[in-house]
């Protein structure tokens, strides 16, 4: 998305932003192609959204890759202080709106970069116990959660990226279901609890 189109997308989302809670900051420009929405970073050149996070678990069963720090942290590999609403708005602005997100392949990859490490595929940290291999690389897709009676469910529950099927999360596993909650565990290469990390969401062009 070029800068002009990005500004158009931002202007369309502005009424939503202004109605958000005080901790959802308005967009700040960092450079010609980098913007910040609170702690969430948007790169229009790389078509990426980056979320600061922290490793929350190192072993055991998981249902989520990333949740808000007030969400289901007992079931998640990572946690973040960034709100699901901030993340959702950042992605809507980057991709040009909900219509483009209906393309199930627009989320091209989810990467994790721990402190001083190279970025790796998030799926390499999750084990498919049934198959005894890492989670399939193209498992995550953008769902966008749901709103019920004016409540955005991802914001209410803190569910950002699920490794199971979860219609209320922003992103979930296209090959799984909510009942598949005992099939996923943390691989042994996960960093220690408390390790800072960046979760990088890369998006394909909406034309693809």
Polypeptide structure, described:
The chain is of the alpha+beta class. Helix content is 18%, strand content 33%. The chain has four helices and 17 strands. It has helices at 3-18, 84-95, 98-101, 153-157; strands at residues 27-29, 34-37, 40-43, 48-55, 64-68, 76-80, 107-114, 120-121, 126-128, 133-134, 140-142, 147-148, 151-152, 159-162, 171-173, 184-186, 196-203. Strands 1, 2, 3, 4, 5, 6, 7, 8, 14 and 17 form a ten-stranded mixed β-sheet that branches. Strands 10-9-16 form a three-stranded antiparallel β-sheet, with no helix packed on it. Strands 11-15 form a two-stranded antiparallel ribbon. α1 packs antiparallel against α2 (84-95). The radius of gyration is 16 Å and the shape is globular.
Topology at a glance:
Elements: H1 3-18, E1 27-29, E2 34-37, E3 40-43, E4 48-55, E5 64-68, E6 76-80, H2 84-95, H3 98-101, E7 107-114, E8 120-121, E9 126-128, E10 133-134, E11 140-142, E12 147-148, E13 151-152, H4 153-157, E14 159-162, E15 171-173, E16 184-186, E17 196-203
Parallel strand pairs: 5-6
Antiparallel strand pairs: 1-2, 2-3, 3-4, 4-6, 4-17, 5-14, 7-8, 7-17, 9-10, 9-16, 11-15, 12-13
Helix pairs in contact: 1-2
